[in-house]
Design a protein that fits this description.
The chain is mostly beta strands. Helix content is 0%, strand content 31%.
Amino acid sequence: MRTPSKQPVSRTRTASAPQQVTYAGAASALCMDASSATAMRLNLAGCDGRATERFTYSDTHQLRAAGDLCATAQGGSRGALVVLAQCSGGQTQHWILGGDGSIRQGNLCLDALNGGTQAGTLIQLWDCSGSSNQTWRAVVPTH
């Protein structure tokens, strides 16, 4: 009699339950967050699991948080701040997750303003340079 070989368990996510992650900055180890204190602008904050720092990446290339809010560039140009706003499907809500840890919109990347590493540093669009303030690590929240 043949004994079945042990196969790794496949852990496939279903379309109805996309995995939530936080995006921690490589330079700061702080998470992208949008608190009401910053008028829903994305900024660096301690990773504490609140809804405004938990994102899902949709099949339409949106970063969704806190229900039906999407990461949205306030304009599609260099230096535009990024906020959470109602999801509309517009180009300023279209993001590409790069294999290098970047989160891109065209040739611009999510960037911690002025290379900041402190809590409260705003997130903007800036020319992609591969620097650590433009590198994000997806982390599954533990709480």
